[in-house]
Amino acid sequence: MLCRAARIGRHAQRTGSLGGLSADGQSVACFGFKNATNSQRAAGYRFKSTVTPAAKDTSIPLNSKTQYTTEASADGKTLVTAFPNGLRITSEANPGHFAAVGVYVDAGSRYEDGSTSGYAHLMDRLAFRNSERFTSAEAMAAIEKLGGSIMSSSSRECIMYQAAVFPQDVPTAVKLLADTTLRPKFLPEDVGELQATVPWELQDVESKADMFLPEKLHEAAFRSGTLGNPLLCPIGQLHRATVDSLAEYHERWYRPERIVVAAIGVDHQQLINLCIDNGFADLAPSHPAPAADQSDSNGSWFRKILATGGANSRIAVPSCKSVYTGGTWFDSKPDVDFTQVYLGFKSAGIDNEHGLYVYAVLQMLLGGGGSFSAGGPGKGMYSRLYTRVLNQHAWIESCVAFHHCYTDAGLFGISASCRPRNEHALFDVIATEIEAVAATSGKRSSFRRPYASQEGASLFEVKRAKNQLKSNLLMNLESRMVQLEDLGRQIQVSGRKVPAEAMIQHIEAITPEDIRKGAAELLASPATVLAQGCLAPLLQDGGWKLQSERDAIHKSFSFANFNCAFAFMTAVALQAEKMDHHPEWFNVYNRVDITLSTHDCQGLSSRDIDLATHIDEAAGKYISQN
After folding, report:
1. Which string of DSSP letters, residue by residue, matches 230-282?
2. Staple partner for 606: which of 54, 190, 329, 594, CB 3.0–4.6 Å?
């Protein structure tokens, strides 16, 4: 599921977070906060206490003394305890009939390299199996006896383990969470089972466009890795995974400075004692923090941990700053019922707090859905993609705005589907809607629409979008599990908790001009374009035709003379050499016939589409007729 902290849109409606990863691979992060680099006073914390509890008898070896410091938020609702090893424990004592507790590890697919690609996914699938104190059968029996809910999930920026249980069962839940996160046993039979079952999972995901295409969207948008790394373990990597390599991955990433333990409806001191009893406080950090002494009685080391997100780390963490590149991906499936298209652009991440709220409101303003809906309040029936797209074009099956949001970047756009043979018009329709919002209010975009009464977002539209966003936020924060994930991820990413009241104030401050500028900034970045289904109309719109006898595209060019034709071929050859992707061509005097296909995959790929685009641009300089 992806980390939900900033998930916006349909994920916000489901999870309560504003913004990216769920089971379909979309990521998110906590909505409405910045990475904390300022003082904790600005973050709303006040010093509370420094405690040194006595070690307790337990089956897990403990140090003789454990020091920790606890602080409370300005409203007193959120407590955060930091240990010298970098571990952070946070809780909110919200009343309720059951409690929720979770462990959040700052790891995920964006941090992976070629040797560990997909390992976060495998760690998720190995959760609650064999560990130091439980066999798989014993863990399953304990979970069933709890009668609550316990789960794990991995995303691009977080691996999370969560449980919802009755208050009296919290000690058992913490024991299970501690063993699966801190002391797992990687056995050959468990790895063998993964290697047998994960291919079926990958096949199932590939068959579901709403899960598979967002993954391809990220791969195309972030080609340099990080956020473009696969969320699920690739088949080739799966068969290279071993007991030793998984143990090394766990040792590398499951460090106390990368871990947050969070709880809702649990007494904070009880949570601290449970974490100490189960060995969280005795984890060795990647780089030991200086011993706390009397000079640290003011909690300075605590503030340092909160401000940096953990103790100073010498862990071998790769450079993981995301780099948005944009790109294309096309998958020809002429026999499917609907063609799916995605149009995406670079947007704001969590580190851009104002931008994050702007795109949250913009997503609500665009809205969208399917061609069939039961309607009713809150269904977005008055959003732009309903009134201007779905209600105007009967051939469009669905049209929805999306926003995947991460710590340092976001991906905003529109996904749509239609019956075959309308694909060439579909991209124009959805591109128009983004451009229309970016236009100055009262002015038309370059795409003329007779039914578009005005282009830029009106004050009324923005107010309605903000109301819908606030409603979704507050409604989903009624869920205890959403409260838990929101708390854990906010503390993990920024070291502070932004309350719902502050989020509401940020949303209220958004203006129509903010929306216009946000949409305009989207269009300033390279586009990410995906299409799956019947692609012939898309190709033929540019003069390229699918060949009937093979999976390839073909186009003929005519020039004024041989000199122009040869100059054109030279330009194409230089570009093809740069791309390491060479065309098949035939030349007679002023005529050049070009065929494109990717031999590595024995068919069409996005490399063919990219080269075709460059070929058309080069032809425009020399062609006399086509």
Report:
1. -SSPPHHHHTT--HHHHHHHHHHH--GGGEEEEEESS-HHHHHHHHHHTTGGG
2. 329
